[in-house]
Amino acid sequence: MPNLIVKTGNKILEINAQQGQNLLELLREADIDISTPCNGNGTCGKCKVRILSGPLPNPSQNEIKVLGFNAIEAGYRLSCCYAVRSDVEILLENDSLQAQIVTEGRQRSFELDPVVTKENIVLEKPSLSSQISDFERVLGSCSMLEVNTPSLQLIRNIPELIRQKDYNISLIKTGTRLLGVEAGDTTESLYGVAVDIGTTTIAAYLIDLTDGERLCVYSGLNPQKKFGADVISRIKHTIDSETGLEELNNLIINEINSCIGAMCEEANISRSDIYAITLVGNTTMTHFLLKVPAKNIAAAPFIPAVTSMVKINAKELGVDINPYGLAFVLPAVSAYIGADTVGAVLSTGMYEQEDISLLIDIGTNGEIVLGNREVLYACSSAAGPAFEGANIRNGIGSIKGAINSISLKSGVSYTTIGGAEPVGICGTGIVDGIAQLLEMGIVDETGRLDDEWEPATPEQASLAKNITVVDNMNAFLICGDIAITQKDIRELQNAKGAIAAGINVLVKQSGINFSDIKNVYLAGGFGTYINVDSALKIGLIPFQLRGKIQPVGNAAGQGAIEGLLSVKRLSDAEIISKKIKYIELSSSKDFNDFYMNCMMFE
């Protein structure tokens, strides 16, 4: 039986392998975190490992293409293409644990009316002249109290509960519906959690429901990323594997429970003090959360199993909070306009405004919403993972050491996340870099990187030496061996063309002019950190919108918080989901025409 030694960070792990076992699958089985944006299809290059000792097979043509000659010569191979046939020692450069995740969102004022409340009462004690049953005595204590479907466990518990504190009890309610009963006055102990499940990241918030105060925040990477960077790869896993859906469900539920535990420890409260959880995510993420098959989302005509709001007992979902606690999954619109977009529309308030606004959440899929209180139009544009660092030669996520801004004004200068040594380029860095290359004329309007470029001023002279050939293609070196290649530029053109085309389709089909748009909300991590001038320069955002753009942070997460703290806001989410008119871009001729035009850097 072959023996695998894995060196990662300051850890050394030893794993027994089966003869001929795929290295990537072996690492996954051992719960070793490894980036696999393409879900092991050999196309992204992110699952590379360095073979320190043991067999070093001849690289395939695909590995040479994906990894490049320098990495091959240094002993790197794709783990998804490596079969373990004898003892081997590998180095896994895992730098995904320090991701920069946006958790802040723009907050609005609203009346506090949480989805779960408590009321302390003292019951009239039973007597020979008042022989009402315990359960009916509780129900009769409040004229506005009802139980649609009585919990058998609640009925079993009530006799002892009401007598523990001499008939002093606290009612746990959602609206007028009774959820549970606790002995004594526990009204000061009432907390809730809001969760934004992103394809790449997860953000959670612990909220005191008695005053609306946010106590702490948790953020991390979505553990489902091991099965691909995009939703289609993950859906494919649920189709290909009998246990795929259960695996993806377990990963996200366990992560939610872990983050709840971490926040409870930080706030010094118990899980049983949490009575409600609201959740948002794209439609595929909420399907995985609910353990509902998502396979029909991946193929035309793109039909999800459910888009309405789901309101269930949290323990049925597997979320470990108070046994009486409720889970609310906000509604979606379609297969590719999910609860996260509904939450973002909710938190920006654009659905209530007279002014026309444009909401853009840029990621693997770009969700775009246009309109006001009268009408809302939405579309989802398949930008691909370039904005998140995938399919880019040195692309990485927003982690420590990622180059996140680039300037070519006086030679090459850049900044990195956390001020650390550069390890790659994240999405905002790619946009910045290409915008700068365009400004210098090194890249032309067609996207061609000119290997014969000549500087126009003495200040630009030093840039010429950075133009080189990497992996048999023209490239521009940023630092060390980190470069922006011709292929990277084409990837960005495809991504930005898809987003810009989606915006143009909404403008045309809605009959709204660019001049009518008063606000442009950029949501999510990419929208928060992107250099707006660079986004305009490359044509990611149409130039007509200059001066109207404002980042709104994690608008989806803020929408989940509002839904937790306000019954009206939760109701508004349902109204929004029904109000949005979804436009399917895959069947739009306008989209194809706009896309071809928007590919250019003009």
What does this protein structure show overall?
It is a single chain. The radius of gyration is 27 Å and the shape is globular. α11 crosses α14 and α15 packs across α16. The mean pLDDT is 90. A hairpin with a 3-residue loop joins β11 (191-197) and β12. Helices cover 30% and strands 25% of the residues. The protein has 17 helices and 28 strands.
Helical residue percent band: 25-40%
Radius of gyration: 27 Å
Strand content: 15-25%
Strand order of the largest sheet: 13-12-11-14-16-15
Q: For the record, give the distance between the C-alpha atoms at the N and C termini, rounded to a whole number.
A: 59 Å
* Average pLDDT for all residues: 90
Structure characteristics:
602 residues; alpha/beta; 6-stranded mixed sheet; 17 helices
Topology overview:
Elements (H helix, E strand, L loop, with lengths): L2 E6 L2 E6 L4 E2 H7 L18 E6 L7 H7 L1 H5 L2 E3 L4 E2 L3 E4 L25 E6 L11 H6 L12 H13 L3 E7 L2 E7 L7 E7 L3 E8 L5 E8 L9 H10 L3 H24 L6 E8 L1 H8 L19 E4 H4 L8 E4 L9 H10 L7 E6 L3 E7 L4 E7 L19 E6 L5 E4 L7 E2 L1 H14 L26 E4 L2 E7 L2 E4 H25 L6 E7 H6 L2 H7 L10 E5 L1 H11 L1 H13 E3 L6 H10 L4
Parallel strand pairs: 1-7, 11-14, 14-16, 17-26, 19-28, 20-22, 26-27
Antiparallel strand pairs: 1-2, 3-6, 4-5, 4-7, 8-9, 9-10, 11-12, 12-13, 15-16, 17-18, 18-19, 20-21, 23-24, 24-25
Nutshell version of this structure?
The chain is α/β, with parallel strands linked by helices.
